[in-house]
Amino acid sequence: MRVSLIQTDVGDAEPTAARRSRVARLVREQRGSDLVVLPELWHVGAFAYESFATGAEALDGPTAEAMAEAARDARVWLHAGSIAELTPSGTVFNTSLVFSPEGELVRTYRKIHRFGFDQGEAVLMGAGTEVVTVPLPDTTLGLATCYDLRFPELFRALVDAGAQTLVIPAGWPERRRGHWTLLARARAVENQSYVLACGTAGTHANVPQAGHSLIVDPWGETVAEAGAGEEILTADLDMTKVAKTREVFPALKDRVLGVERDG
């Protein structure tokens, strides 16, 4: 299975419409890949809080429409990263979109863990409540977004729901890049799953982005890692490796649930 992660530069100077067009072109250029992944909130910037409301769109808005067309033209499964989704009630969610090679929006995932410690995203966006997986011909995706990476219980729930490949779009800051790569590998090791972690490059809202998107195998080995700038990371993955890893080192079956605290 060939996967391509598009580590998009998200800078303040580029208008959303221009970036949307540019990213759609990059997706189309990945024809031959099976799955293409984009970062979190690439159309507005994950730290551009003032843009969440002004840049929010419905699920049939211009970004979703452009990504559906790009997926269809490239004949790829497209995890289009996430957008600021505007709902009829007026609530904005950080929502991931997955399109089929026919351009159909087959799944959405609203980010459960909102970053900001009672500021920023944590107060400007609603919280999702659903664990979401997506069956593909060669694997089952488990969806998470950025800050979710710090909460291992979500990923275990995804594995319990059948996930074999964990997809994590992000707008991760450079100052915590060490955590980004460490946690991506940890989620792969503990869940014996592939991890596709796609971040942003550049600087927006005065926050330099980490870049360094990475693909990690079920044993925790880094298959490929990007640098700091805009880059397309492509790798051919052996999807049978998930089952093989879980068979030769069957740690998941030794889980002990419901342990009670003494006292």
TrEMBL record:
Keywords: Hydrolase. Pfam families: CN_hydrolase. GO terms for molecular function: hydrolase activity. Residues 1-239 form the CN hydrolase domain. The keyword Hydrolase applies. SUPFAM superfamilies: Carbon-nitrogen hydrolase. The keyword Isomerase does not apply. Gene3D superfamilies: Carbon-nitrogen hydrolase. CDD domains: nitrilase_5. PROSITE patterns: CN_HYDROLASE, UPF0012. InterPro entries: C-N_Hydrolase, C-N_Hydrolase_sf, UPF0012_CS. Belongs to the carbon-nitrogen hydrolase superfamily. NIT1/NIT2 family. This is Carbon-nitrogen family hydrolase.
